[in-house]
Amino acid sequence: MTEHSVGQDRIHHDWNADLEPILEIDSGDVVHFDAMVAGEGQVWLGASYDECRFDFDTIYNLSGPLWVKGAEPGDTLQIDLLALRHGTWGWGSIVPGLGLLPAEFPGGYVRTFDLSGGDEIEYAPGIVLRLREFMGTIGNHPGDPRRSLPFPPHRGGGNMDNRHLVQGASLWLPVHVPGALFSCGDPHALQGDGEVCVTALEAPLTATLRFQLHKTSSETPSFLVSPSGVSHFDDAGYYATTGISSDLLECSRIAVRNMVRWLSDTHGLSPEDAYMLCSFVGDLRVHEVVDAGVWNVGFTMPLSIFRN
Questions:
Q1: Where are the alpha helices (DSSP H) in the chain?
Q2: pTM beyond 0.90, yes or no
């Protein structure tokens, strides 16, 4: 087993099978990443939305690709997340036209956060959030097309925004190209299931990952959740809203829309701060799909964040 380090000087912004790998590793090797925050140089601590200069062609900073020796299409790459640690600051945003509720939030909005004080932040008076970092984008090259945007998840993983992939978790990814061409980035300090306002709490991250190659096939990404990833907020219970509709996406909109209203009415948050809080710590849950043509989606808000 060999240990390697990857800094912030070798990044790319999309999935491109023609990129030269920055590192060759053997099965069993450990790699230490210094992952650059999404939007580095485009948003900064203290910036307002009007000051930011978002460039969606370069907003994602992916570390890689890594060439895994012996990896061939049809294999499976196991990634063990040994250590993850957030950086000293982070940001979240509502972007016009994006997110789950674009009609309700047509204007741009950015908040930045000082994360240097430890593993908790005061989101608003009496509302305290515990940080739980993970990689929003982590995957092998999908193979086809050879070059594609970084945003949608794909059959090799990619921008899955899976909040359960915290320290201690393991991830299994299908290999679709020789060498696997693994990349990771888009680090988050905190996110709920759904990332409904379009961002998580975006933050720099240092990560230690171990790679193991298996000569067995897998059709889709799969993962094993560590105990810390199962539920890091729900120990005090949660309040939930429900969306019922013949369309799963509309179910989600109804549930989140009503949670935004509840947070504003009950806890005095502005609609923008309520919506962003939903993205940071709220979870979309599909409660039921068996009734023909009508689905039931819930959205939960953990009560442990309310300290007063």
A1: 227-230, 248-267, 271-281
A2: yes
